[in-house]
Amino acid sequence: MDTYSTHLFIQLLTMSPSEIWVVFPIGILVIILLLGASAFMSGSELSFFSLTPQQLLNCRSSATKADRGIAELLDNPNKLLATILIMNNLVNVSIATLSNYLMLGVIDEQNGQGLEVVILTMLVTVLIVFFGEVMPKVIAGQKSFLVARFASGPMTFLNSVLTPFSWILMQMGALIEKLIKKEGYKVSVDELHEALEMTTNSDETSMEEKEILKGIVNFGTISAKQIMRSRIDISAFDINMNFAQLVESINHTGYSRVPIYRDNLDKIEGILYIKDILPYLQQESDFDWRSIIRKDTYFIPQNKKIDDLMRDFQSKRVHMAVVVDEYGGTCGLITLEDIIEEIIGEINDEFDTKDLAFDKVDSSNYTFEGRTSIHDFCKLLGIDSHYFNEVKGESESLAGLLLELFGRMPRVGEKKRYRDFIFTVMTTDRKRINTVKITLKSSKSEGNR
Question: What's the DSSP call for residue 437?
Fold first, then answer.
């Protein structure tokens, strides 16, 4: 609001209601100017605070005075916001006061009553909301940098002039925040997923980048039990093997680290690093290789989160941990590579064979090995990792999930539906489900409930 408009506004306030008709058009003009000032403030607020970090960085290194002004204003965003709020509320209150004063003169002459005041209130509200808030913010949202550059000069001046008032406002806000003792906002994983979907829903973000971001979001919620290699799939060597048998077994496995057990997997003696064997390859069968077993085996519980495990691996300088149940029995094995794969996806080197645990028949049908973990199944099909939490019980594999769904050992060909999936048992042995067919519920195939 310029000096001339302010002078007119004061003059109007000092006039009697009967004199209002004389300057009524001027009063309307002042209201229009005030609406413009309100729009300027609202648009400035959105434009300044919607600039990207890259745009702000460009402003700091720019030779243009307006751009540098943007960076200087945003060096103290709380003060800038206080200045905008003070001016915006001052302008909006002035609009309401002047409109009411002009209307009172008309009402008095016409002997009007409360209905006119209600109509005036509604009209002023609509004008302020639409022209002073909605429209400028829509424009500023589309052209945020241009609007911020245009507003840089005036806002720098106002930011300086209103420093005493903005300081008081900031101090009051800090005091209230201190009294309330506001705790940090805890963001749930679901909220992070929703935010991730909104922010990555563009052609600029590749599918690989989205998967990495999802892996980071889920990282702190995944337990060792969900991604470990189960007991039945562990490659381990008996400590009673002679050296020739050991070397032959190493050639068949291809792993760089192998657990060594005595009698059974519940009695892990240590971890054998294959590189430690290399200097002794020329030794005879009776060579005592047990002396090079590393005894400092790292045992962890099933429910340990992999973000904590990652830190433990770093601090202890180990790459492998044995997962044990509540009774101390071995239930699985987890490596550093397994953890990293949860973020960046599968890691395959030149010695890995492409041994996928599933086969895609068509867009609606898949076949999976029963030992496939539920966690991996959810990742492969792009569904939430907690999708089966209500029915899986303590199971972490597809075979275990089906046992929970059936409540018994199913026969070959039996089907079970759960939500969007139909599970068909393909092959079994006496104690284990080997292969499962998965059919999406959207297909015409129907299964038994």
Answer: E
Phi and psi (nearest 5°) for 227?
A: -120, 0
Supply the Cα-derived Rg of the chain in whole angstroms: 36
For residue 210, the enclosing domain spans: 189-218
Domain end point (choices 344, 366, 391) = 344
Same-domain status, 64 and 140: yes
Report how far residue 218's alpha carbon sits from residue 406's, in angstroms, rounded to the nearest whole number.
30
Contacts of 150 by beta carbon, 8 Å cutoff, 6+ apart: 66
Q: Are residues 19 and 139 in the same domain?
A: yes
* pLDDT 10s digits, 404-443: 888 888 888 888 888 888 888 888 887 788 888 888 875 4
Distance CA 26, CA 12 (A): 9
Instruction: Please indicate, yes or no, whether the overall pTM of this predicted structure exceeds 0.70.
Output: no
The beta strand positions in 341-389, using DSSP E, are 358-360, 365-369
Alpha helices in 189-292 (DSSP H): 189-199, 207-218, 224-227, 243-253, 274-277
Length of the chain: 449
